[in-house]
Amino acid sequence: MPPLDRRIVKVRILDRDYCFASTGEEADAHIRQVARLVDEKMRDVGRNAGDATPMQTAVLTGLELVDELLRMQRDVSSVEEDISQRTNRLTESLGQLFREVETD
């Protein structure tokens, strides 16, 4: 197995620099994208939170992101259940159709 290309990626969130370990250009880009989205979300939350401290802004942002994640997980579960039900109905319909064709 080749050695990992370990390096540090520096990002800026709410005007503070943070350094993250990275293992390649694709990982670098991912870290930068995540940091950009976190920064945007924190700035949005900060604007709506009035005089919140950076720590309060970070906590509120975390709560909003986890809430969004949980809602998305529920949506995915609902869609998966719907697909499963539709697949079962289709399988039953095809089974019935094959039984009818076999008896003809």
What does this structure look like?
With 104 residues, the chain is of the alpha+beta class. The chain has one domain. It contains two helices and two strands, in the order E-E-H-H. A two-stranded antiparallel ribbon has the order 1-2. Strand 1 and strand 2 form a beta hairpin. Helix 1 packs across helix 2.
Measured by DSSP, the beta-strand proportion falls in 5-15%
Structural class designation: alpha+beta
The largest sheet, given as strand count, sense and whether it forms a barrel, is: 2 strands, antiparallel
Measured on Cα atoms, how large is the radius of gyration?
24 Å
Order of helices and strands: EEHH
Question: pLDDT average, as an integer?
Answer: 92
Domains counted in the coordinates: how many? Answer: 1
Give the CA-CA distance, first to last residue: 60 Å
* Count of separate DSSP helical elements: 2
Give unreliable regions as ranges.
Answer: none
Q: How many strand segments? A: 2
- Strand order across the biggest sheet? 1-2
How much helicity do the residues have?
over 70%
Shape: elongated
What features would you highlight for this structure?
about 70% helix; 2 helices; about 100 residues; alpha+beta
Could you provide a short overview of the structure?
About 70% of the residues lie in helices and about 15% in strands.
